[in-house]
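This protein record is not my work; I was only asked to verify it. Where you disagree with what is written, explain briefly why. This is what I was given:
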Amino acid sequence: MSYSDKTNVFGQDVDLNGHLRPSVLLAKLEDAGSRQMAAFPPSNDDLRARGMAFVISRLLLRIDRPLREGEVADARTFPTVSRGVSYNRCYRMFSGDECVAEAYTSWALLNFRAHKLVRIGETEPIGGEQEAPIDVGIPMREPFPPAEAFETAAVRAVYFSDADRNGHLNNTKYLNWLCDCVPDIAHKTLHTANVSFVTEAPLGETITILRAEVGGRYFFKMQRADGKLCCEAVLGFADLEK
């Protein structure tokens, strides 16, 4: 069953073009999911009290139009077909009757006390009634350019303001970090994002962001100092009028 959550776009939510930042869009969508879980327990807080927390493993996001400051939007979400250790959830963002963004996500439920993943069926149903998944029009996996095509775009540390309750770089912040590494980003707007989250980026970790551009799309790898891959991502953009 789809859950609806009204949300406002405030001045602090937008970039210098007045567009809702993709990271804030994702945060608003995920907040709607958290509220649905609170309405149909167990909530995220209930799970945490039992030693469990969700961690994201995949994001497919398509933005057809960036929301602007002052708009009132409607974030809608529902759990969808899930199996094994993948808990899948879909999102849509509406402005009036216009759907401006859609997302498909996969999550793992981690029992951090037992240090294991919780399989579907090992807990009560989570997050309400399932609906059919959204096809956001983005392939789940894409071939990446060879290693020699990548260059170092940035080296950043994970600071306190970046971290979530699990002590890792919050998943919504990845889009900020990656978009900051796109040349001439002030004249572009994010249209598609395919992010595979591999290994957490802990508080205090130094992250190297590698970038390759192919046909106007940007391929990224984020690596920890120990060489472990944090994420791989493919971002597509639309140009803004200069």
Notes: Residues 22-39 form the longest helix (18 residues). The radius of gyration is 18 Å. The mean pLDDT is 96. Residues 139-242 form a domain with the Thiol Ester Dehydrase; Chain A fold (CATH 3.10.129.10).
